[in-house]
Specification:
Layout: H1 3-20, E1 24-30, E2 35-37, E3 50-54, E4 57-62, E5 74-76, E6 88-90, E7 99-105, E8 108-118, E9 125-128, E10 134-141, E11 146-152, H2 157-160, E12 163-168, E13 174-180, E14 190-196, E15 203-216, E16 221-223, E17 235-242, E18 245-253, E19 258-261, E20 266-268, H3 270-274, E21 280-282, H4 287-290, E22 292-300, E23 303-314, H5 320-385
Parallel strand pairs: 1-8, 15-23
Antiparallel strand pairs: 2-6, 3-4, 3-7, 5-6, 7-8, 9-10, 10-13, 11-14, 12-13, 14-15, 16-21, 17-18, 17-22, 18-19, 20-21, 22-23
Amino acid sequence: MTKTHYGVHAVLWILSLVDCKIPEVRVNCIFSEDCTLPCSFSPNHADVNIQWYQQEALILRLQQAGEQLSNGTMWLFNDHISEGNASLLVKNVDIRNKGRYKCVVNNATQTYVVATVEAPISIISIDTNPSGLIQCSTKDVYPPPMVQWSTEPSLTPAALQPITRMVPNGKGLFYVESLLKQQNNSLEHIYVCNITSKYGTQSWTASLQLKEMTGSEGQDLVIPCPAHKNLKFSTLAWTFTKANTTTEILKYDSLTQKTTSFRDNIKLTEEDVVNEDGSLTLEKPVGADHSGIYTCVFSGVKMRHLIQIHVSFTHSRHGKDSVAYNLWMLGIVVGLLGLLALTLLIKRYKAKSKRSQENAQADEEMQRMNTAKPMEQPQAESKLMTQPSGSRN
């Protein structure tokens, strides 16, 4: 190898060392929002030539003459270039904007920028699906987050074994769904789902508690809904599910302390809600109309806590229904007593008829006997008179 080749390699090595000392900045851009990639330089020259590269591909160039290269979504802060600001503004960020950028001013690299793109978690849901599995989900997130399950009281991770799937949509954002099988003693546990963004910038929590209770038809029923562990919530909502149809029946806003009820026979004591008790009073329920699943939902900052109560009713009669029921039962009793009396009368009549018939038969028999006696006596006397006289010795 010639001295010239050694010299070239030495220069490249020196340049690589210089390149390694160039600062690298990390910027987290939010999906669909504007994002600024920083780059500053010393404005020592009247003529300024700025170039921006993404993955070594030129995406924007600005020269003193005003020549500019842009794809329509990236811009320079032209008014601040004279102050040494060559930062790049990326408008309406999408997944394609992630990657490594390089800012070059007057043919000298000033900054490397590593841009990440994140569609943050904006909602979390937890519920039971038609198959009886507990489902925790979120949507329109990027990159795919981490999902973890736990229970209270605690169970080992091996006992839970959730199934999680992440499906991208047309924009590259993900729908996340995690399914968990209920435990045999599911009414004794609170199921907790935690979804954390890949970069650790967010963590959302949803929890679900399952209950069952039975009420008496026509009697007021209090459906319990205590808040979980001094939970700070902004809203409380009650829903009712029957025949796979869910309707909102009551809502409470902690900021305005206002309750909105969508049914006349439902009440919530606002004083109790302030004390973290969202229990609902169901007045004079009718079993056929009010049996179903009642769900209370506490919602707050990055959290949701659900209590799902399956309510059924036993049959009982009160009020106006009681009068009709009692009259109906009284009619049945009277009918049974009447039937019993009639049966006794029939039996008594049959017994009397039988005795009369027996007495008539007895009288007839006596008459026969009395008629037969006078005929026997003359026959006996005639026998005595016809006997021979010698026999009287």
